[in-house]
Amino acid sequence: MLPSPSNPxxxxxxxxxxxxxxxxxxxxxxxxxxxxxxxxxxxxGLPAPRIVDWREIVDRxxxxxxxxxxRIDSPGEDSVVDGCFRGAGESTRVEGSGQWYRHFSAAIRxxxxxxxxxxxxxxxxxxxxxxxxxxxxxxxxxxxxxxxxPAALPISPRSYSELAQHAADAGMxxxxxxxxxxxxxxxxxxxxxxxxxxVRAVTSVEMGDDGVLHNSLRVRTYRNEWEIAAIVDRxxxxxxxVEQWLPKASLGGRTADxxxxxxxxxxxxxxxxxxxxxxxxLHLGGSRGELxxxxxxxxxxxxxxxxxxxxxxxxxxxxxxxxxxxxPGEGWRRFSVGEVNAFGDLLPGLTGLPGGPAEGLNTYQxxxxxxxxxxxRECTR
Length: 381
Description:
By secondary structure, the protein is an alpha+beta fold. It has helices spanning 8-18, 32-43, 54-59, 79-86, 97-118, 126-132, 135-144, 160-169, 225-235, 291-298, 302-313, 363-380; strands spanning 22-27, 50-53, 68-72, 121-123, 174-179, 189-193, 199-207, 213-222, 240-244, 250-251, 254-263, 266-275, 287-289, 321-328, 335-341.
C-alpha cells in the first residue's frame, strides 16, 4: 500500500537514513516529465537523479552503475529522437509509427540488458512496455484477463475497403480506427457509416497537397469517402487497431472519459477529459472536467471505475505505474478500458484522489513515495 504523507520527504526520511537510492532517468532533459520526477526525488531528500538523454540511447553512448534504479520515460517531444526512430523528416508526420515501434522496442530492451549487466535495476519490464505500445496486443491481453474492453476487429485491415467490409460484417457502423503503435491520438479516426451510404470521419489527421499525412492540433471532419479512403490506405501499412465506437457518457453536454493513474497497483489520480468531438485529448481542444461532477454522475458506480482501472493495471504487474483510459458508458453505469499507457502519468497540477493514499501529492511525488516504501520493505526482509 502507498503511504499517505502530507509531505513525501517526511515519510521517506527513515528510508533515506538506511539507504540513499540512486535514481537514473532515461528521458528528454528539461522536459516536464523528467523535471517532475526530479523535483519529486529531491523533494524527498534524495540526490537528484542522473539523466540519460534519449539521444544517448539512440547513439548507444550510455551506461549504468551497480545499484542504480533506472526509470525509463517517454522519448516524445524530441524531434531528433523521433526522426531517428520514425525515419521521417518532419516531427508532425503521422506515417512511420510501425518503424518507430520497432526501434523503440529494441532500444528499451537494450537499456534493460545493459542495466542488468551493470548490476542496475530497471523499473518496469521491456516486454510489458512493448505490449502497452501495441494496441492490438494490449487489447488482447486485457480481454483475456477478463477486463472489459470494446469489441474489436480480429484483423488489421490493409485498406479502407477491407476495413469497411470487415466492420460491416461485424455489425459495427461506428468504429475508432487507431494506429497500432500510435500515441497522443496520432492517426486516430472516429469513423461511421450511415444507412444510405453516408460516411463521416472525425480526426486530427491532415493530408498535405503531396498526400503526406500530418498531425494537426485542429480536429476536422471528412465526409468525402475518397478522402477518407486515401487517409486509411496511407495509415494501413503501419498496422491498424479497429474497435467498436461505444457511446460515451457526457458531462455538461460534452463527451467525457477518464484517465486514471494507477501507482503500485492502487488508483491514485484521475482526470476528467471532455470535448465537443469524439477525441477528448487535451491537446486537441479537449478540456479538463470537474472530477466532483464525474464522481457525482457515477454515484455508487465510481468505485467500479477505479476497480476496473486497477484490474487493467494488474495485467502489467512489473509496471510501477500506468495510465488507464476509462470509457464511461451512457448514464455512467458501465465502463470499459480504452487503453493502458506506459507513460500516462503527465497530469500537471493534479493531486491525488480525495481521501485516497495520494491526496495532496502529484503523480511523481506519489511514485517516489511508492518506490521508497517498496525499498523500505526490501530492506527489512
